[in-house]
Amino acid sequence: MKYNFDEMISRRNTNCIKWDASADSEMLPMWVADMDFRTAPAIVEALQKRVAHGIFGYTRVPDEYYQAVISWLDRRHGLKTKKDWFIYTSGVVPAISAIIKAMTEPGDKVILQTPVYNCFFSSVRNNGCEILSNPLIYAGQTYRMDYEDLERKAADPRAKVLVLCNPHNPAGRVWTHEELVRLGEICIRHNVLVISDEIHCELVYPGHKHLPFAFISEEFLKHSVTCISPSKAFNIAGLQIANIIAPDDEIRRKIDRAINVNEVCDVNPFGVIATIAAYNEGEEWLDQLVGYIGENYKFMKDFCAVNLPEFPLAVLEGTYLAWMDCSALHIPSEELGVRLQKEAKLWLNAGAIYGKDGDNFMRWNLACPRERVADGLNRFLAFVKNNK
User: Fold this and answer.
1) Tens digits of per-residue pLDDT, 246-290?
2) For residue 251, what pLDDT is reported?
3) Residues 347 and 29: beta-carbon distance below 8 Å
4) Residue 374 near residue 327, CB atoms below 8 Å
């Protein structure tokens, strides 16, 4: 491989949330979703060139930025987009919050397919809306949608929005064409807008293909808004850049107003520059990254099959987040998370934060050198042996 993803890079004492949130130097953090790899060299070089200029005032988003994003979406996903459809902002979570503000009134309901990314819950509540859970069905170490339940929830006259996570965090699903069509038809029938969070869309493994929800048909395009960002795929979340794709003029006008009301309408120069470099020059690096993380998952799956057969992993189709069934321990996930930190010096995400449907699970971040994956698994194995 051209790029060395095995390199062990210390992130301690860099004000890194992942590594510096714990003062314990022995703690191994495999929780929050950022990577322990340096980003693509082209991004580093572009940022170094900008830093050398030495002045960091307010930035203008140039045409080159839109050209890079539009070209990337066409090249990687076959999407034909227009500059006028885009609204830039500081992140996908602020984007989702602004869209909910724009498309609901306090007291309305927002459908979430739980277990799901925990920040969705706060985005709904912070806008005075109510969460309407459409739990996913777990069987055979994978998840599927419950369309009968979705039909009932979408029929609620107060249900205005569904937040789709595709690829799904933490379930690891990359939804198929058939699944997305069934979901979309239900939402369109009941006039429920789909907000599609596709931040993990570049992190998809062989045998699966990311299908952007909005571009399945013209009807889906009209009844949805898509959120994307290079932050997960290129490990640049700290540069705070994301895009909302809203083809409908009236919906986009409302969202633009909400973006300004929430005061997340400005971005920093480094996010703009990093996005241009990532999309214009980072493709080879990304392809090798996805291959490496896929091998990390295979390594974890093989390790668990031999050493932890009572702890099955959900099939990982996309994202770099492994979802482990820990029900064999009979310990609630939040308690398990605390005990793992204390007894094994291992920090994972408790499944309960993604909704009550996730309480028997723990989420692992596999976007790190394989040596760290092995270390984490051995720590977890030792904990299990000590608690039998």
Assistant:
1) 999 999 999 999 999 999 999 999 999 999 999 999 999 999 999
2) 97
3) yes
4) no
Q: Which amino acid is at 34?
A: D
Tell me how crowded residue 192 is: count the other CB atoms within 10 A of its CB: 25
Whole-prediction pTM: 0.97
Q: Which among 217, 116, 100, 98 has a CA at the least distance from the CA of 159?
A: 100
Provide DSSP, 128-148.
Answer: T-EEEE-PPEEETTEEE--HH
Instruction: Answer for the pair 231, 239: CB distance below 8 angstroms, yes or no.
Output: yes
- Please report, for residues 22, 24, 134, 147, 346, the alpha-carbon distance to residue 364 in angstroms, rounded to integers and kept in the order given: 17, 19, 24, 28, 10
Q: Please report, rounded to a whole number, the percentage of residues in the chain having pLDDT higher than 90.
A: 99
Q: Which residues contact 103 (CB under 8 A, 6 or more apart)?
A: 160, 161, 193, 251, 254, 255
Measured CA to CA, the distance from residue 255 to residue 342 in angstroms comes to 44
For residues 207 and 306, give the distance between their C-alpha atoms in angstroms, rounded to a whole number.
Answer: 25
Whether pLDDT at 337 is above 90:
yes
- Helix H segments across the chain? 17-20, 41-53, 63-77, 92-103, 119-125, 147-154, 177-189, 218-222, 231-234, 249-261, 269-281, 283-307, 333-339, 370-386
Is the per-residue pLDDT at 27 higher than 90? yes
Are 171 and 143 within 8 A, CB to CB? yes
Which residues are CB-contacts of 258 (< 8 A; sequence separation ≥ 6)?
Answer: 98, 99, 101, 102
Determine if the peptide bond prior to 167 is cis (ω within 30°): yes
User: Given the DSSP bridges, would you call strands 193-197 and 159-165 parallel, antiparallel or unpaired?
Assistant: parallel
Helix (H/G/I), strand (E/B), else coil: 299: helix
Chain CA centroid to CA 237, Å: 11
What are the phi and psi torsion angles at 258 (to 5°)? -65, -35
